[in-house]
Amino acid sequence: MGGMTATTPARRVLLAAPRGYCAGVDRAVIAVEKALEQYGSPIYVRHEIVHNKYVVQTLEKKGAIFVDETAEVPEGSIVMFSAHGVAPVVHEEAAQRRLATIDATCPLVTKVHKEAVRFANEDYDILLIGHDGHEEVIGTSGEAPEHITLVDGPEDVANVSVRDESKVVWLSQTTLSVDETMETVDALKTKFPKLISPPSDDICYATQNRQIAVKQMGADADLVIVVGSKNSSNSVRLVEVALGAGARDAHLVDFAEEIDEAWLEGVSTVGLTSGASVPEVLVEGVLEWLAQRGFEDVELVKAAEESITFSLPKELRRDLRAEAAELSGRPAAQTSGE
């Protein structure tokens, strides 16, 4: 700090709250850890349990094996489905391969799946707002593929057609930008005036709260750092929300060492937050990195209180090793991982 003059603005960090783990991520990560404790390794996980590089690497070290497809899991093993949810066909594949399954789908994603099934049963055309290829979108679409049309942002609305304009409903991926989603909904309502909304908002509480916190600090920040992985939809959205709220610059990093010192040029206020799948240890690493460069003053920007928790997947209360052995017709000792 020795070289600072009286005219140099004080360096500070605005730390967003809430940030980091949401209830669904917390539940999914604990579920993998508990399964490894209870049944030994390996526990196979279909797709990344949550979209975070550090979490996946940590769980791999403990004995989790991440696979892209159910077909990669050896028969008679235990497989866990990620927090993003899977289509019914994946459950069928697991049954065919005689796998014992643990479903770590976030309950808020399950809610959207159930809405899709209900509206499909009532023969609605369902317009699913979300990002093409995202795991959650693939899972939700799979609940009623013949009824669901993906709408990937406001510019996609022009391409949408439906069978009956009086029977149309919109649903959404849970991790989108609230503002952009409402922009898409408004465009859809202009095109389909009878469009109905889901019974309750599909964008999850955690996504919304993290965006609100970033909006509150965005205008005051010269630079916003979002800790999160590039394949994490909600983390990428936080960068967009920060820029939209008036931050001069915003970047997504997995770890403190990815921060470029050049970003700090002319910066006196850094905003800091993290996506819903990011452990707090990574945020602490960034705070230390910033403190070493004179950003020692940390102010909390609090947007909401979060007290939601979800109970662990019910399958963890059963003996899945015995179940896997029974399904594959092998004696349990061989599958115990010992």
Short description:
The protein has helices at about 25-40, 55-60, 90-95, 105-120, 135-140, 180-190, 205-220, 235-245, 280-290, 320-330; strands spanning about 10-15, 45, 65, 80, 100-105, 125-130, 150, 170, 225, 250-255, 270-275, 295-300. The protein has about 350 residues and is an alpha/beta fold.
Describe the structure.
- With 338 residues, the protein is of the alpha/beta class.
- Helix content is 35%, strand content 17%.
- The strands form three sheets. The protein has a five-stranded parallel sheet, with helices on both faces.
- Strand 6 (125-129), helix 5 (135-141) and strand 7 form a beta-alpha-beta unit.
- The N and C termini lie far apart (56 Å).
- The quaternary state of the protein chains shown equals single chain
**Which strands sit side by side, in order, in the main sheet?**
10-9-11-1-12
Which ranges are low-confidence, i.e. pLDDT below 50, for 5 or more consecutive residues? 1-6, 334-338
How confident is the prediction overall: mean pLDDT? 94
- Span of the ends, CA to CA: 56 Å
H/I helix tally: 10
**Helical content band:** 25-40%
Structural class label: alpha/beta
The biggest beta sheet is recorded as: 5 strands, parallel
* Tertiary shape: flat
Strand content: 15-25%
Series of secondary-structure elements, N-terminal to C-terminal: EHEHEEHEHEHEEHHEHEEHEH
Total E-strand runs = 12
Radius of gyration over all CA atoms, rounded? 22 Å
